[in-house]
Amino acid sequence: MQINLHKGQMKVFESPARFKVVTPGRRWGKTTFAKLWLEIQAARETCPFGTSLLDSPVAYVAPSNKLAMQLMWRPLKNELKDLQMLANDYKKDQIFELVNGRQIILSGADNVDSLRGYSLGALCVDECKDVKREMFEDVLTPAMADKIAPGLFIGTPPEGKSGIFYEMQQMGFSDDPKFSDWESFEGSSWDNPYLNRAELQRMKDTMHPHVYRKEILGEFCSMSGDYFSAENFEIVEKSTVPDMCNIYITVDIAGFGTGKDARRRDDTAIAVVAIAPDGVWYVLAIHSGQWDPRETAVRIMQAYKSFEPIKLGIEKGTTKNAVGPYLSDVMHRYRRYFEVTPLSTGNKNKQDRIVWALQGRTHAKRIKLVRGDWNQKLISQACDFPDPNSHDDLLDALAYVDQMSGGANYFDMESLGYHDTWQPLDAYAGY
Predict the structure, then answer these.
(1) d(CA 231, CA 17)
(2) Is the confidence at residue 413, as pLDDT, over 50?
(3) Own/partner pairs, 113-118, CB within 8 angstroms, 24+ separation
(4) Would you place residue 330 in the very low, low, confident or very high pLDDT band (cuts 50, 70, 90)?
(5) 3-state secondary structure 6-21
(6) Beta strands in 276-429 (DSSP E)
């Protein structure tokens, strides 16, 4: 079998993860990749622990039976014939029977019971955004259990950042050990070398930025962007940060629950910002994640040791109180003691507080991001803000720097036409 994939597809193909979540842009080659994946899975005859897969079909699930047939029946049939893998096909039942005795089933998620009772050897779900949670949790997940079946979950991202497809993508991006067999991929239309570059550039220049991110770059995003855009954020190298800066660390602590909604809550975020003499903010790092109180305290201490800020503040409330004892313990252990400044909302709602602290600065290019793997996460949250279904934890932590630094505004008075002619009579006394 000849494998001819572009780099973006090959990255997904070579991943050892059992569950792969792919959000490709238009014309990325989603159907071609899914077809090849189905063929490779159907060629296998034993599962990871050696049990036969002859009684465990490979399933391709689309939002409806009609769509499953339209997308996959003819392309897959022709490919299987060319590879001399096809023994029989039963169009009425939407089944391919292969020469090795295995089957590939095409099914629609509109009939929840269509795959109930099967023991699947592999599962590909296409256009996941249109498949209901009940189908995943009640039918598909149990069907994959006994043969440790691999899964490919693929589709263009839906509107907003909610739903089971988004949750699956976040599991693939998570560094939580319990999701170690998941991996997620954002596939851009630009990955496809056969697409005309000028046409892609034309779409970039003419499409609404939100639509471009979702349909071409394959990103989960929200129709928002009322206050920020990606162009507002300048990414710079660490070497460009001035020497004479005041460094502040602000911490926005999320909850510590472990219930079924835990994955949907915001992360704890630790923002490290160096403010130059001219008032420009250089965001050195933003660490984020869902940590327990002890790990949160350790990460705060690690940030303090690494950057040695003049002030460190934590949003006050029950979560700060929960971390407090652990932070005291960590201070004793590291023998590093510092005062924690309690940060408050100032009786402002979160949206106003973030807008007042960050919007003007970003539009004036007075917030610069030092290059790091957290850059895109912050920019994505800013572009989605203030969508209630999107996270804003990194923005929230960053906005608190305004309060920590005194909220000073800086102006170049000479550029505004003002010239201070005062000079001291005595250079030592200052008057």
Answers:
(1) 34
(2) no
(3) 113/139, 114/65, 115/59, 115/61, 115/139, 115/140, 115/143, 116/143, 117/143, 118/56, 118/57, 118/59, 118/143
(4) very high
(5) CHHHHHHHHCCCCEEE
(6) 281-289, 311-315, 340-343, 367-370
pLDDT in tens, 238-264: 999 998 899 999 999 987 655 544 455
pLDDT above 50 for 412: no
Angle between helices 293-307 and 318-334 (to 10 degrees): 60
Specify the DSSP element, H or E, that contains 179.
Answer: none
Report the chain's terminal Cα–Cα distance, integer Å: 86
pLDDT of 170 reads 87
3 state DSSP class of 86: strand
According to DSSP, the residues that pair with 20 across neighbouring strands are: 152, 183
Spell 390-399 as b/e; 16+ CB within 10 A means b: bbbbbbbbbb
Q: What is the CATH number of domain 230-404?
A: 3.30.420.280
* 270 and 288 Cβ atoms separated by less than 8 Å: yes
Q: Where in the chain is the domain with CATH 3.40.50.300?
A: 7-210
Q: How far apart, in whole angstroms, are the C-alpha atoms of residue 394 and residue 374?
A: 9
pLDDT 10s digits, 57-100: 999 999 988 999 999 999 999 999 999 999 999 999 899 999 99
Cα–Cα distance, 146 to 282 (Å, whole number): 52
What tokens does 306 get? 């690494």
β-pair type (268-275, 246-252): antiparallel
For the chain, how are helix, strand and coil distributed in percent, rounded to 5? 40, 20, 40
Structural contact between residues 212 and 201, judged by C-beta atoms closer than 8 angstroms: no
Helix orientation angle between 30-43 and 74-82, rounded to the nearest 10 degrees: 50
Report, as an integer, the average pLDDT of 175-202.
91
Query: Would the pTM of this model clear 0.85, i.e. be above it?
Result: no
Write out the residue limits of the CATH 3.30.420.280 domain(s) in the chain.
230-404
CATH T-level topology, domain 7-210:
Rossmann fold (3.40.50)
CB 76 within 8 A of CB 96: yes
The token pair that represents 14 in the structure block: 């070579």
* Residues shown for the chain: 431
